[in-house]
Every structure is written in C-alpha cells, then in structure tokens.
Specification:
Blueprint (H helix, E strand, L loop, with lengths): L12 H18 L1 H9 L4 H29 L2 H5 L6 H8 L3 H13 L3 E3 L5 E3 L1 H6 L3 H16 L3 H7 L5 H5 L13 H25 L7 E5 L5 H9 L4 E6 L1 H13 L6 E5 L13 E5 L7 H15 L4 E6 L8 H15 L7 H10 L4 E5 L8 E6 L5
Parallel strand pairs: 3-4, 3-6, 4-5, 6-7
Antiparallel strand pairs: 1-2, 7-9, 8-9
Helix pairs in contact: 2-3, 5-6, 8-11, 11-12
C-alpha cells in the first residue's frame, strides 16, 4: 500500500542519486566552457567528437535521406553493380551534368552508399550493396515523400494531433468509419507497399518461431498473401487462412490461385472491427497490424482472437516495438511520428502489449528472439498450454 510518506512513484535512493548525477552531466554538457575544454582534452576529445557528429547527423538527416532517394530513383546501385565507373562515364547514364554526378557520388561515398575506387572511379559501398535486390526498402524510400511532407512543420503536426494528412490518405482504413467498404482502387497502393516490404519481415518472424508445430494458421490483416506464401514454403503441411478487408482479400485470393495454393488456402473478407473472425486455426498472426490501432481497438481484437482460437491457441504479434534495445530510434522516434502522421495507432512496448493481452485472457506471454529487432520483434501469447 502507498502512504503519504512513501508514494508509489517516489524514486528510490539509487534512482534519486542517478537523477542528480545526470543533472550535473546535463549542466556540464550545456556549458560552452566545458564543451571547449572537453574537445581539447585528450581523454574526452573522442567522446566530444562523437557527440558533435551525432548531433550534426540529426540536423543533416533529411539531406542524407534525400541522397539515398536520388540514388534509388536514378538506379545508381544497379549501375555500380556492373563495376566501378568514373563520373564521366556515369553522367550520361544518370542523365545528370558532370558536376551534379560528382556531387552525388561524393555524397553517396560519405554515407557508405558508394565507395571511391582507384583511377577516380566509384563502386558500390557496403550500404549501397545492401540495397541491391531489396525492393521493399527501395519502395519505403520512395514512400517517405508523403511522410516528409506531413512533417514539414512537425510542431503543427504535434499540436494538431490526429488530423488529415498525406499519410492518412495513403492508409485509408486508419480513419475510415467502415473500412470494409473500401474499394480495390483505394487499397491497391498500400497493399502493394506492404507486400514489397513483407519478405524481410517474414524472414524475421519465421526464423524466430516454428510455425510447423501448428496445423492451421490465420493471418489477420494478411494483405495480398505475401506473408502466408512465405509460410507455405516453410511449412508445406500447414493449412492457411487469411482475413482482410474484402477488396484486399480479393487480391490475396487471386495470388493464391496463381501460386497453386487455392486447395490449402482459405480467404475471408471482412473488418475485424465489425465482423467475426474465422475459426479453426490454432495459430493467429498479426504482422505489423497492432501498432496501427488505438488501445480500445487492439483490446477488442485480442478478445476476438481469444474467442476464435479456443483454449489451446497461440497468437503471434510481429512488429517494431517501443523500447527495443538497439532499435529505440525506430520504435519510438520513427514510428511514433509516422503513426501520428498516419492518424491512427502508436508504438507499444512489450509490457504494454502484455497488459492488453492479459486483459483479453492470454496467460502465457513471452518474447521470441529475432535476429534483427529493428525490422520486427515477436511476441508469442498462449491461452492455455505452455508448450
């Protein structure tokens, strides 16, 4: 029980001491005299330089992203994959003046997207090489134009909160009162973007959790079936079920038919906000779905899943999560502002998700280790059994 002398939120002795030490640090770092001294003193000079670089990178981040966008749009990485080339040889292929080509190449090299080679030539850098064949990432780079437009005045966005934005128009289900009524033309663009970026997420999920142990999987918000098609390759005996808005489900049905999966794949159209979920699965997956919605919608969805699964069912949640060690900027800075601009949802910590899951009746909840938490973390929740 809390008391007047010991309130629940009062910091302990250790926490209070840490707070005081951090306050001293903040005052020192804010002092121009201290910063000047730290930049010259041999033992603190490396730290001062790293922090100065980190702060400048925050200031220049938009420029860096636009260098990447230019490389993607000009297909520079594909051209450099043919072998190192001079700016003179690249300029006509990029349809750029020579001085602009040189500027872009130097900028790309500074960001490790390209790399200076012998004879004044440029080849792929380690980050540029990673972009090769990564259609999902390239699609996201192009897509960010909408986000940057919505963030042109970030203070206005923060003050307005959930308002009409370019991203909100791109993800129409976020604000739609009746998302099940969206037509095919309205859902095609965002469905294609999700499909393009889905393979790298699927690799993380399927590497973290053995779906083969189940007999039937239901993917809620499964888009055009890209994730389930990856599942089908990993677990050839697993029955597949997909639930999404009717216009999206229609595209999934067509893809399953083209891939020869119609006999083992069932597709149901509907909205989980208003329609009952399909039953019969012992594994339900929510891949980049939960963070799109507010707590009330998520809790109602979790309860509907618990009812559809039955006592021995398992729920798997996969998405970037807030507070993930080593991926904090993605979970909190990137998705925090992205979802605000989108007009719906928020990033959640595993503990916040666990609290909602327990309210919905899930008893056994644990994290599954993924190789790249920046792409997705995986939370596994079970109703009855622990195995």
């Amino acid at each position: 029980m809390a008391s007047a002398d010991h309130p629940v939120d009062a910091p302990g002795t250790g926490a209070a001491l840490l707070d005081r030490l951090l306050s001293v640090r903040d005052r020192l770092v804010a002092s121009p005299r201290f910063r000047h001294w730290a930049a010259r003193f041999p033992l603190t000079r490396p730290v001062a330089r790293r922090r100065a670089r980190a702060l400048f990178d925050l200031c220049a981040g938009f420029v860096y992203s636009q260098v990447l966008l230019a490389c993607v749009r000009l297909k520079l990485f594909d051209i450099l994959a043919e072998g190192p080339q001079t700016p003179e040889a690249l300029a006509p292929r990029l349809d750029l003046p020579l001085d602009s080509t040189t500027t872009l190449l130097r900028a790309a090299a500074a960001l490790r997207l390209a790399e200076a080679r012998s004879g004044g030539r440029y080849g792929l850098g380690p980050l540029g090489a990673a972009m090769l064949g990564n259609d999902g990432l390239a699609a996201m780079v192009e897509h960010h134009g909408l986000l940057y437009a919505d963030l042109a005045d970030p203070v206005a966005l923060l003050k307005a909160g959930r308002t009409r934005t370019g991203l909100g128009g791109f993800w129409p289900y976020a604000a739609a009162e009746q998302p099940a009524g969206l037509d095919r033309g309205t859902v095609t663009a965002y469905t294609a973007l999700m499909a393009a970026s889905q393979p790298m997420v699927a690799a993380e999920v399927l590497g973290a959790y053995p779906v083969r142990r189940h007999r039937c999987i239901l993917d809620i918000g499964g888009g055009n079936g890209t994730f389930l098609m990856q599942v089908a390759q990993r677990a050839p005996d697993l029955k597949l079920m997909l639930f999404d808005l009717p216009a999206v489900a229609e595209q999934a049905r067509e893809r399953f038919a083209a891939a020869g999966l119609s006999a083992r794949a069932t597709v149901v159209g509907g909205s989980f906000r208003s329609d009952p979920l399909p039953t019969g699965a012992d594994l339900v997956t929510l891949v980049r779905i939960v963070h799109d919605h507010d707590d009330a919608t998520v809790l109602a969805l979790f309860r509907a899943i618990a009812e559809a699964l039955g006592p021995d069912g398992t729920l798997l949640i996969a998405e970037p999560m807030s507070g993930t060690a080593g991926a904090e900027p993605v979970g909190d800075a990137y998705f925090g502002l992205y979802l605000m601009a989108m007009g719906s949802g928020r990033p959640r910590t595993p503990a916040e998700l666990e609290a909602l899951l327990r309210q919905a009746g899930f008893a056994h909840i644990e994290m599954a280790r993924t190789s790249t938490p920046l792409v997705a973390s995986v939370l596994v929740a079970r109703l009855g059994r622990t195995g």
